[in-house]
Amino acid sequence: MAINVDWVYKTVLLILNKEQRGYITPEEFSKISTQVQLEMLESYFEDLNQQLRVPQGDSEYADRQKSLDDRISPFKTTSECVYAAGRFVLPSNLYRIGTVIYNDETEVDRVQKNDILYINKSKLTRPTTTYPLYAYEREGGETTTSGTPYIYVYPKTITTGISASYIRKPTDVKWAFTTGALGQYIYDAPSSRDFELDASEQASVVLKVLMYMGIIIQDYQFVQTTAQQVQAEMINSKS
Fold first, then answer.
1. What are the DSSP E strand ranges found in 63-182?
2. CB 172, CB 107: distance < 8 Å
3. Side by side, which strands form the sheet with 149-154?
4. Interatomic CA distance for residues 167 and 177, integer angstroms
5. Cis bond before residue 155 (omega within 30° of 0)
6. How far is CA 234 from CA 78, 160, 181, 187, 230, in A?
7. How far apart are CA 90 and CA 151, in angstroms?
8. Structural domain boundaries of the chain?
């Protein structure tokens, strides 16, 4: 279950008020929240990489690898790749590429583009339709997430049948609003976009947003108590 953006915003506002630390506009909150969500997704990969190095417990519900994979799973997807100008264009929402498949049955191995020249020189390593290869690139460099991602598939006779599994970028968080008669912000639920992170991350999301505001809170109980107060107020307002 996703994290309600209205709940997070109101919790943050209430804590800011209690701490007498000013105010955050909906636009500022939405931008910060989008960054927080992306950072938390990235942290899952780092945590999973560490967990793969250590033995896991026998309990089904205490498997940290499985728990992290569950948090990443909502962002896993697959897509057909479109061939254009000698390369296959990947979806624009790609965050991390997973497995590239040819004709739904052959896994395409990844290589560096500058190694293709040497690989093609040997009959033993030269790519074929049975053992194809691909090189990944993104306009602007691999460190950017805004440039168009694409892959070169070898041999170049392959121009169809390429699909890819990948981790997509989370949708930008948005607390949408209309303006009331007194100039107040009124939450616009249909136009808003919730966090796509697991509901168990609610307190962490609030804490990380607050850190961007220059507030560091060590006590999770304080956040949880404030969140419960906000939740009660939201329920009362609907009754």
1. 76-80, 82-84, 87-89, 94-102, 106-110, 133-138, 149-154, 162-168, 177-179
2. no
3. 76-80, 162-168, 94-102, 106-110, 133-138, 149-154, 87-89, 82-84
4. 30
5. yes
6. 37, 52, 21, 12, 6
7. 7
8. 5-71+173-238, 82-160
Three-state secondary structure call for residue 173: coil
Please name the residues in contact with 80: beta carbons below 8 A apart, sequence gap of 6 or more: 162, 163
Q: Is the pTM of this model over 0.85?
A: no
Residues 6+ apart with CB under 8 A from 223: 11, 15, 203, 206, 207, 217
What's the pLDDT tens digit per position in 168-210? Answer: 999 999 999 999 999 999 999 999 999 999 998 998 999 999 9
Interatomic CA distance for residues 174 and 47, integer angstroms: 27
The whole-angstrom separation of Cα 67 and Cα 188 is: 33
Q: Classify burial at 209, counting beta carbons within 10 Å of its beta carbon; exposed 0-12, middle 13-18, buried 19 or more.
A: buried
What gap in Å lies between CA 89 and CA 83, rounded to an integer? 6
pLDDT, tens digit (0-9, with 9 covering 90-100), for 88-127: 999 999 999 999 999 999 999 999 989 998 998 888 889 9
Cβ density class 147-166: b for 16+ within 10 Å, e for less: eebbbbbbeeebeebbbbeb
Question: How many beta carbons lie within 10 A of that of residue 132, not counting itself?
Answer: 22
Q: Nearest-CA neighbor of 134 among 161, 149, 112? A: 112
